[in-house]
Design goal:
Elements lengths: L7 E7 L16 E2 L2 E2 H10 L6 E6 L4 H8 L8 E2 L4 H12 L6 E6 L7 H9 L8 E7 L4 E5 L2 E6 L5 E3 L3 E4 H10 L8 H7 L4 E5 L25 E15 L2 E4 L2 E4 L2 E3 L7 H13 L5 H4 L13 H13 L2 E11 L9 H12 L6 E6 L5 H4 L3 E12 L1
Parallel strand pairs: 1-4, 1-6, 4-5, 7-12, 17-18
Antiparallel strand pairs: 2-3, 6-11, 7-10, 7-11, 8-9, 13-16, 13-19, 14-15, 17-19
The protein binds magnesium ion.
Magnesium ion binds next to strand 13 and helix 7.
Length: 388
């Protein structure tokens, strides 16, 4: 008779203050690709089909930050951590006792690049009933030196030495007992707790990309490794506004002197309207006219950033985040080129994106059609939203 699948809980440890990282905001709440680091981490586990429960250990001061990072994800209520990481893990494990899963994966909140493949490898190792714990690791490749001050004393063999990563996975009752048995000891990871308790801990191939964010530079220039747990949704938007007498147009939040203005109920920022509709489109949330009806006087003359912010908030609430936006403004005049940088900067700030994820382009219609006759300006936008 086939055995029933093991029940799996995940404990994400996110109570640290990140003193090496610096700054007032703990690193697990800093933005990575427009979302808190911790959200990437949580989404990877919360969307994994073999995982039933995800619990986060947080600092008591971080409830508001956590609520934002966890918004829309299927998670247990967070629990408060203790003075040291080891205390935080133990308190987290205690909170899972009533659920009593077969396995628990314990993971650092500041390792957002966790891949589904690594989670799968960890779980698969437990098909061997003798395995009590599994640690992903990377064999050391650099030569090791023992040093006193600045003096090299000797070269140390790296044979058999591995760097341990997380998630570290354990049979739940055993790791809970092991943690209870070593209160007050200083052990640097959960595998060390298990080893001390005499549990059989095995190493599996880790993942070079599964790095821990430690320093501010770690937040930059990272490729998009964790897309396995997200599904891309592409939204498109299109809008047109006609010219009327005036002396400036607003495009992408930037006022540009011109021989006419754009007519519209709001500030007629045709570029932001197309982009806003693309965001609504990516999450199936209707269109700008649905959320901000032109019949409603409160939106008269309104700054269109209000619309963009609303759409971006809905994307976040849906469990998604914006991976890329591409906007094309279609007109003979004014010239967009001189303002492209300011427009890009506006969108980067408004959407919390790096400049490599924001594209503002312009084209004419070779004097053909309504744009060619300078009767108005059109804009179209494509956005990619990754949804958990
Ligand atoms: Mg419009």
């Amino acid at each position: 008779m086939p055995s029933s699948p093991l029940t799996v809980a995940v404990l994400v440890v996110a109570a640290g203050r990140g003193s090496r990282f610096g700054g007032p905001l703990p690193k697990q709440y800093r933005l990575l690709n427009g979302q808190p680091v911790l959200r990437h981490t949580l989404a990877a586990f919360a969307t994994h089909p073999a995982i039933q429960k995800v619990c986060t250990v947080i600092h008591p001061d971080d409830h508001a930050l956590y609520a934002q990072a966890a918004d829309g994800l299927n998670l247990m209520d967070p629990v408060h951590g203790g003075a040291e990481r080891q205390d935080s893990v133990r308190l987290g494990l205690e909170s899972l006792e009533s659920y009593n899963p077969d396995l628990v994966l314990i993971h650092d909140g500041a390792r957002p690049y966790i891949s589904r493949a690594l989670i799968d490898r960890s779980l698969a190792a437990f098909s061997d009933s003798a395995v009590a714990g599994v640690v992903p690791g990377i064999p050391l490749s650099d030569t090791l030196k023992r040093v006193n001050g600045t003096t090299v004393l000797e070269t140390v063999s790296r044979d058999g030495l591995w760097r341990a990563q997380t998630p570290q996975a354990f049979r739940f009752p055993a790791i809970l007992q092991a943690h209870r048995a070593c209160i007050g000891d200083t052990l640097t990871d959960d595998a060390a707790v298990a080893e001390k308790a005499g549990l059989s801990v095995h190493i599996i191939a880790g993942d070079d990309q599964n790095e821990k964010i430690t320093l501010p530079g770690d937040l930059k220039n990272k490729p998009w490794h964790h897309t396995a747990s997200y599904e891309p949704h592409v939204g498109s938007g299109f809008d047109v506004h006609a010219f009327c007498p005036g002396d400036a147009v607003t495009l992408c939040g930037i006022s540009i002197p011109h021989s006419a203005r754009l007519s519209g109920h709001s500030d007629a920022d045709v570029a932001l309207h197309a982009l806003t509709d693309a965001l609504y489109g990516a999450i199936g949330a209707g269109d700008i006219g649905l959320h901000f009806p032109p019949s409603d006087q409160q939106w008269k003359g309104c700054n269109s950033k209000v619309f963009l912010d609303h759409a971006a908030t809905l994307v976040q609430a849906s469990g998604g985040y914006i991976a890329h936006v591409d906007l094309t403004i279609i007109c003979e005049a004014p010239k967009v080129g001189p303002h492209r940088q300011a427009m890009t900067a506006f969108l980067c700030t408004a959407l919390g994106l790096e400049s490599s994820r924001v594209s503002v382009k312009a084209t004419t219609t070779e004097k053909l059609g309504f744009c060619g006759r300078s009767e108005g300006i059109a804009a179209q936008a494509t956005v990619t939203v990754l949804r958990a």
